[in-house]
Amino acid sequence: MATISFIIGIIGNVISILVFSSPIGTFRRVVKKKSTENYNGLPYITTLLSTSLWTFYGLLKPGGLLVVTVNGAGTVLQFTYVTLFLIYAPRDNKVKLMKLVASLNIGFFGVVVAIALLAIHGNLRLTCVGILCAGLTVGMYASPLAVMRTVIKTKSVEYMPFSLSFFLFLNAGIWTAYATMVRDYFIGVPNAIGFVLGSVQLILYSIYNGKSSLPTRSTTVKTMEEEEEEGSAHLVKADLDVNGISRNLTKGRSLPKSSVYRQHSVPTQTTRIMKALSLGPYDLQYIQPLELAST
């Protein structure tokens, strides 16, 4: 049984490191453009805290080598991501992120380690650190709930990449099996929850894959033309009523004025439509405030 659990733990290490490595492409783009653009730095900061605490938990736990190796590697990768984010973030955002890093990754983590080593002893030390780690992991797996709601609302999986959902599902399943074999409930409970949520994500993907709620180009063009014509008609009518000279206008004199109004009739409506079409899925996601961190 020990050999099987060790093999499963090795597989879990490989999958977890693949998940931790998924943002590498994003940060290649950040370094190339020398800007963090619209990316959110909070998930990387909270994941760094989570992997740091799990590494500490693995050091406290007898036989926790596999927990240390996977989360140690995750800590190195997340530290790299956070460092790059701080380097290329805008100045006002950089200050806020630095305060967050100082309070969470240095202050909070330091306090937890100090209290665990100095004020708590015996099995209670491992229990307290384990509960804290489990709570952070549940939060990580619960973070895609907002994306799942968006998928149901829009009937489109553009907001939920299949590869990430699949690897999170696989990762949670492997670590749930490992925790069951070694009887570690702090690892097992949050990963079991993640396994269930990952299963729901894959079910949603199978239901809504290939469906899209985005408007077609022809429909959009037709809507723009109809709005422009309607706006022109309203403006021409208002001009005739205000000036009170509709009876003096001939048909030939009124037509050129209509064409002028068509050029300048509804710039606000047209601008709004074009702006909405230019927003991609990730743009729409970052416009909304993020309350939960994700990895």
In short:
The protein has 295 residues and is mainly alpha-helical.
Provide structural commentary.
Residues 214-223 and 245-295 have low confidence and may be disordered. This protein has 13 helices and no strands. The two termini are 31 Å apart. Helix 6 runs parallel beside helix 9 (185-208). The longest helix is centred in the middle third of the chain and has 28 residues, at 91-118. The protein is mostly helical. The protein has helices at 2-21, 24-33, 42-60, 65-88, 91-118, 123-142, 145-154, 162-182, 185-208, 217-243, 251-264, 267-278, 281-287. Helices cover 80% and strands 0% of the residues.
Terminal Cα separation, in Å?
31 Å
- What pattern of helices and strands is seen along the backbone? HHHHHHHHHHHHH
The helix content is: over 70%
Q: Please indicate the percent range of residues in DSSP E strands (runs of 2 or more).
A: under 5%
Oligomer: single chain
SS class: mainly alpha
What does the radius of gyration come to?
28 Å
The number of E-state strands comes to: 0
Mean model confidence by pLDDT: 77
Largest sheet: none
Number of helices: 13
Overall body shape: globular
* Model regions low in confidence, pLDDT < 50 over at least 5 residues: 214-223, 245-295
